[in-house]
Amino acid sequence: MLSIRLYTLLGLAMLISGCSSVYYDTMEKVGIHKRDIMVDRVESARDAQAEAQEQFQSALDQFASVINLEESDLKRAYDSLNHEFEASEAAAAEVTERISKVESVAEDLFEEWQEELDLYENKSLKATSARKLKQTKQRYQTMLSSMKKAERSMQPVINTFRDNVLFLKHNLNAQAIGSLRGEFGNLKADINNLINRMNQSIKQSDEFIRGMQSS
């Protein structure tokens, strides 16, 4: 993982220049190349998904406790559930942002790699490098597809949470709680599905990282 000091330095360079090439040039001067940045960002995206898993599970647990509260506890129930909803929404946004950063550096890395193939004089070395590029792209696409699938599965869960939080807010009464009980089964299934997809995405990320590090 890249050091906080380097990230701070490079972040300042980005703010001053507004150009990603300055970021990459600065990184290379300290021996950190696009492939290293890519691995770091994949790790960050993987970690964000793991954190989102925990947050969605926490929100589901809170939902389960809310539907069993007495009427006198409804205001507290709403506050607790709304807090979990906002935290889940933030976790989902963080996953999306980190996946976007992975895509950004991957695009730059593969573009540079493709351009540099034309610099080879040795045809055998060029063919080997081109083959590695193709293999890396394939591993990346497999991982990215899994990440995107997990990302897409977050939104239905967020939407369901939002609907139920709003319903509870607008109907702070025992009848509202009764209606929420009917939603719990669907929400639980959605979150379990989301967690399974994120597990698959995290597994693909780990495999991609190992492949990049070994090559």
Q: How would a crystallographer describe the biggest sheet?
A: none
How much of the sequence lies in strands comes to under 5%
**What share of residues is helical?**
over 70%
Return the structural class. Answer: mainly alpha
User: At CATH's second level, what is the architecture?
Assistant: Up-down Bundle
CATH class: Mainly Alpha
Distance between the termini: 17 Å
- Taking pLDDT < 50 over at least 5 consecutive residues as the criterion, the unreliable ranges are 1-6
Mean pLDDT: 80
CATH topology: Four Helix Bundle (Hemerythrin (Met), subunit A)
- Written as H for each helix and E for each strand, in order along the chain, the element string is HHHHHH
Radius of gyration: 22 Å
Question: What is the chains' assembly state?
Answer: single chain
What number of structural domains do the residues give? Answer: 1
Q: How many β-strand stretches?
A: 0
> What characteristic shape results from the CA principal axes?
elongated
Number of helices: 6
